[in-house]
Write a structure and sequence with these properties.
Chain lengths: ~300, ~230
């Protein structure tokens, strides 16, 4: 009899514990107390669709807290490839986008999916590869020649293959080189830039990367920059709002606040100096107010 | 080799100093996966009981679906829950995409078939003579079900352990419906992937160790409770 009572008690205890877990899970939603100076917007949740490069390089970790503190919005950052980020915008699943593939972006601006389209910053793409450089990329002058040299050599080329901004740029370069890379020499990872760099390093292959992610993850890589400085390799970031007239559920005020924040002078200064202390050089160049044609 | 040592040292450092971000991620993981498992019990145990004790046309077919559901890939669940919860989806008005609630829903869907299938298997293994005896003693349907469930509580604990183990270790669904947002939906598995892609292998190793310790700790607690229930040695 006594044992039975004990049984029932511990069974009840287990149930109680489970309920406690639930209650504590629901009750304390992760909303830290905001300081008095921060305004509280009517619609605080803001979905930012952006690229893996802004997250993997660490830039967002600096910008987002500053934005949240200044405006009181709570940003949900979804870091995916540019293709996926733009697709989110096209369905109205994001409020604001920070991406880097202007030919694809232009379509959204033209069909009025994206409004308030602003140039934010740029850095550049570089071709990296093993130190020994078996394909002699260092001797080439243009990205197109570099790709031709890599393809003619026994070395492999590692591609993002994820329809990201970097991937789009790389695919465009292959088209320019009049090559259709296939087979085991052209390996598509389908992953973000950080992981693709690791894979290229392990396989002693070549890849195209944005400078920011390369510098931020360089410490683990056995890869060197072999080609840089060509104007066609500029990596340009734009910020834009998803059109609230097309998608009424969009947080238009928040999106506008984010665009304004990205192009304001203080933020631009933050962007321009980001990475200087850690990597000895800035990872991005601030460009707000400039025109695309003015870049380099 | 040096990286592994650094990782382990970093893990110990993070654990001892109680790094607030790691602590937050760990607590969120526990809350989300605990809630997901609990909801899966509310769905899985009644459903498994129904499948085991009630005979209806198409029962075997439903059972085969539930058994197959034990291997439901989290990434598939993640995709489908996303499609429904996105603003453009049918439940977009709820505004719960990229929140812990969304992860809990996805994880409950992942764990429910596991709990249901194991509950069903456990009940079907009970001695037919015992069932007859319970009926013979004049139990109501509810009493009958309750007594049988109590009889198989040992297996039910195993079902809870299996369900929790499945959801705490999954990444596909958490990444898709949670979005790995810092301070909001970043759980141990998605944080590990992020640190790997950032090239911070020491922190990634630290997180992976915490995840294993957490999964083991929860399982240990349940196992002890289970063995106590059984009155085993």
């Amino acid at each position: 009899m006594k044992k039975k009572l004990k049984l029932r008690l511990s069974f009840g205890f287990a149930l109680l514990m489970a309920i406690l877990v639930i209650v504590s899970g629901c009750g304390k939603a992760a909303t830290p107390t905001t300081p008095a100076a921060t305004p509280t917007p009517a619609k605080p949740d803001l979905i930012l669709a952006t690229t893996t490069s802004t997250q993997d390089s660490g830039l967002l970790a600096v910008l987002i807290p500053a934005f949240e503190k200044k405006t009181g919005y709570k940003i949900k950052t979804i870091a995916v490839g540019t293709g996926a980020a733009l697709a989110m915008g096209e369905k109205g699943d994001a409020d604001v986008m920070l991406v880097h593939a202007f030919t694809s972006e232009k379509k959204l601006v033209d069909n009025k999916t994206a409004i308030n389209y602003q140039l934010v910053m740029h850095n550049d793409f570089v071709i990296v590869g093993p130190t020994a450089d078996p394909a002699k990329v260092k001797d080439t002058k243009t990205a197109v020649d570099a790709l031709k040299a890599i393809y003619a050599s026994p070395s492999i080329f590692v591609s993002r293959g994820d329809d990201s901004g970097t991937d789009k740029m790389e695919k465009a370069l292959w088209v320019k080189a009049n090559l259709k890379p296939t087979g085991t020499k052209y390996q598509s990872t389908g992953q973000g830039m950080g992981q693709t760099l690791t894979i290229a390093s392990e396989k002693e292959g070549y890849t195209l990367t944005d400078r920011a992610t390369y510098l931020a993850t360089k410490k683990n890589l056995k890869l060197n920059i072999l080609l840089e400085g060509e104007t066609s390799l500029l990596n340009i970031y734009h910020v834009m709002q998803v059109n609230p007239e097309k998608f009424p559920k969009v947080n238009a005020d928040g999106a506008k606040a984010f665009v304004d924040f990205m192009v304001n002078a203080d933020t631009q200064k933050l962007i321009g100096s980001f990475g200087k202390d850690q990597y000895g050089q800035a990872l991005f160049f601030a460009d707000a107010g400039k025109k695309m044609e003015d870049l380099k | 080799m040096e990286m592994i040592w650094q990782g382990i040292l970093a893990a110990i450092h993070l654990l001892i100093t109680g790094d607030p971000e790691v602590l937050e991620i760990t607590l969120l993981t526990l809350k989300v996966s605990g809630s997901g498992t609990f909801i899966s019990l509310l769905i899985g145990i009644p459903f498994g009981t129904l499948l085991a004790l009630k005979h209806f046309p198409g029962r075997r077919f439903v059972l085969s679906i539930v058994n197959a559901g034990m291997g439901l890939p989290p990434v598939v669940v993640g995709l489908w829950v996303s499609i429904f919860l996105w603003r453009s989806g049918p439940f977009g008005f709820l505004n719960i995409m990229y929140s812990p609630t969304a992860i809990i829903i996805a994880q409950a869907i992942i764990a429910s078939p596991i709990v249901a299938a194991l509950t069903c298997a456990a009940l079907q293994q009970t001695d037919p003579k015992l069932r007859l005896q319970i009926w013979a003693l004049g139990a109501t349907r509810l009493q009958y079900t309750w007594l049988l469930l109590k009889e198989v509580r040992f297996s039910l604990f195993a079902a809870i352990i299996a369900g929790f183990g499945a959801v705490v270790s999954e990444i596909g669904a958490s990444m898709a419906v949670g979005g790995n947002i810092q301070g909001q939906t970043r759980v141990l598995t998605t944080a590990t992937v992020l640190e790997v892609s950032k090239g911070n292998f020491d922190i990634a190793i630290a997180l992976s160790i915490i995840l294993c310790v957490l999964a083991y700790g929860a399982t240990l607690g349940l196992t002890l409770l289970q063995q106590k229930q059984q009155g085993g040695p």
